[in-house]
Amino acid sequence: MDIVASWKPQTATPGIIPMGKTQGRFVFINESFQNMQITLSNGYNFYLPARMSRAICVTVATGNFSWKVLSTMAIPGVDLALVEHYDPTEQFIETYPGSQVSGGGLATGNTLSNEGNAAPLEVIDIGTTGNAKLLDIFNDHFVWSVEQAGVAHQVLKGQSSGTPLQIGKVGDVTDILGNLTIPNAVYVQAYDHLGVARGILAADVTDHTIARIAGATSQFKVLNQAGTLILGTDSGGLNIVSKKIFDTSSNNLVDWTGAGLFIEGNPASNGSMSYRGNGVNTDWQMGGLSTFTGAATGTYNHNMVRFGASAAPNFIAPMCQVSGSQTMGYDTLTATQAHITSGASLSFKAWCYIQ
């Protein structure tokens, strides 16, 4: 037995290799992870799989052969292939075809390559005794599941038609432990009752947050955990179920829970309430009102408060509130008091206003 040829399938350029022998028995040994085609100079060719050896009993016209790689298992290993020659009367010491064993352990690598095959072709199939194909990878689609208490739960599914990627399983909960980020002007979608995907939430190109209802005639609703409506829209406009509008300090700004309508401007500071007819000029503004009573001429507390502090009114209207008549007026306004003139010392009530 002689070694008559050797080469490195992983790194060498495919071509012709001389053996120096034309007759006898040839054993082609492939230690590499390259699946090759061997063609003898007499035209005979055969397949030499990775990690396999084959015995060939032929006459080689010129003692040469050529080789080429058909596919690669892409697992790091020995980059070596060789040819042993046995004389016609020499006995083989092994049985062929045979597999190659190296190192007594498992070969490991970073890549599994399976290229050029028609779809669908199953590449990886891993499961348990109770649930086969928990990990089932084809060359054009895949299913990745986990087993919990003997039950398979799909976590990822890549499809060759329809929606390319599915996450989770119907009835399961999917936890997102980090941030879920989508591109600008791309909507989060939800299926409507007809199974049509509708964009419902996005940040547009001007960085506005846009929320859309799922249908042309449907409503926008905010519910509590009990499923009770808190805020919504309908064909008539905005529906505020509590019938109240509060500021950030829970001050009641607008309240229509009773028979009337209560509106207060900045309750935290006893602020004014304004109406702007054209968006620029103040056509009507109310800051504060107060009243006080008296009889004779004298100085009285007018009780006016604005922005949380005592303030002098812009106007006071004292009026007699008993039978009779008298001249009345006011002067000397301060933040807390006003001097009232009462011509006949009759009881009066004064109305005060401040912008």
Count every beta strand, where a strand is a DSSP E run of 2 or more residues. Answer: 33
CATH topology of the domain at 2-99: Jelly Rolls
The rounded Rg comes to: 46 Å
Strand sequence of the main sheet, in spatial order? 1-8-3-6-9
Helix content: under 10%
Q: What structural class is derived from the secondary structure elements?
A: mainly beta
CATH class of the domain at 2-99: Mainly Beta
- Residue share in β-strands: 35-45%
State the assembly state of the protein chains.
Answer: single chain
The major pleated sheet works out as: 5 strands, antiparallel
Low-confidence stretches: 102-108
CATH architecture of the domain at 2-99: Sandwich
Overall mean pLDDT: 85
Provide a count of the helices: 0
Span between termini: 115 Å
Overall geometric form: rod-shaped
Overview of this structure, please?
The protein has 355 residues and is mostly beta strands. Among the domains are: 2-99, Jelly Rolls, CATH 2.60.120; 114-179, no CATH class; 286-354. The chain has no helices and 33 strands. The protein has strands at residues 2-7, 16-18, 25-30, 34-40, 45-48, 52-57, 64-72, 81-86, 98-99, 122-126, 135-138, 142-148, 151-158, 165-167, 188-191, 197-203, 209-211, 221-223, 229-234, 237-240, 244-246, 252-255, 262-263, 273-275, 284-286, 288-294, 298-301, 305-306, 309-310, 315-320, 328-331, 337-342, 348-354. The strands form 10 sheets. It has a 5-stranded antiparallel β-sheet, with no helix packed on it. A 5-stranded antiparallel β-sheet has the order 10-11-12-13-14, with no helix packed on it. A hairpin with a 4-residue loop joins strand 4 (34-40) and strand 5 (45-48). The chain starts with a strand and ends with a strand. Mean pLDDT is 85; it is low at 102-108.
